[in-house]
Specification:
Length: 271
């Protein structure tokens, strides 16, 4: 995850495609990256009456229309692919062709989350009209991965970053059967306090070392609700989910965060 040499723009909804192309064109120019565009017509989700005749999709007509839109945005030489169905699988296969890829797509319930599950590269999911970001909240579940942090700083240079860690604790007593494993519930209090302080100290030390503003909070609700609410309170226009991997509590909450967030979301797994 050294940077981004290629932007992979992914569209399902023709009406939302303009925002995806505009954001992708902006990033292509800023990063001097290549651009590939993939339009996947999900028949069960979106109708395309302008490009269908007798239930057949006119892929070439749709491809030329996308190329025309890119020309108006000042982008030439992009590779444009048009497919039908199986968005996440097609995106995952295409993303594997080059390591330094950033996927840009618009939010589509179920489809967007599936893309993040099946790919290992960063995914920017648009929830608003294309614009330049000013402030990003970076939600983490541990000390941020250096590569992921470097990636964000390069992709969104000039954006004010605020780190956020929402501490969530699952009591050990809730995971064992007292009839099988005797357990002193009071031990949960000790474990909770020790773990919280260790996480807080590590987080605050990292923020101080990197010169970044950071907030450590004890979770009041689910990690999805807390992260979205914090970004709203900060007035952020981008929420970054920088989880260590897809199986952490934060990584597992990606689908709910994508659904609940009203601002754009960047998913950036460390591994």
């Amino acid at each position: 995850m050294r940077g981004s040499n290629r932007i992979l723009a992914v569209c399902n909804d023709y009406e939302a495609c303009d925002a995806v192309l505009a954001k992708s064109a902006q990033l292509v120019k800023e990063l001097e990256a290549g651009l590939s565009v993939m339009f996947v017509a999900e028949e069960a989700l979106f109708e395309l009456p302008l490009f269908r005749s007798d239930d057949l999709l006119d892929k070439e007509k749709l491809r030329h229309e996308i190329l025309h839109k890119l020309e108006k945005l000042g982008v030439e030489g992009a590779a444009v692919f048009v497919y039908e169905n199986d968005t996440a699988d097609r995106v995952a296969l295409e993303a594997e062709r080059e390591n330094d890829t950033l996927i840009v797509t618009h939010f589509v319930e179920d489809v967007s989350a599936e893309i993040t599950r099946k790919t290992t590269v960063p995914v920017l999911v648009l929830k608003e009209s294309s614009h330049t970001y000013a402030q990003a909240v970076v939600a983490v579940d541990t000390v941020p991965d250096e590569e992921c942090l470097h990636f964000m700083k390069r992709i969104f240079s000039g954006v004010e970053l605020t780190l956020y860690q929402d501490f969530q604790y699952v009591p050990v007593s809730a995971t064992v059967d007292p009839a099988l494993v005797p357990y002193d519930i009071s031990m949960d209090v000790t474990l909770y306090t020790e773990l919280m302080e260790a996480k807080r100290e590590s987080f605050e030390a990292f923020c101080k070392e990197k010169g970044l503003k950071g907030y450590f909070e004890v979770g009041e609700n689910g990690i999805d609700e807390d992260s979205v609410a914090f970004a709203q309170r900060q007035g952020a226009d981008l929420l970054v989910i920088a989880a260590m991997d897809k199986d952490t509590m934060l990584g597992d909450a990606v689908e709910d965060i994508l659904t609940k967030s009203t601002i754009d979301v960047l998913i950036c797994f460390a591994r």
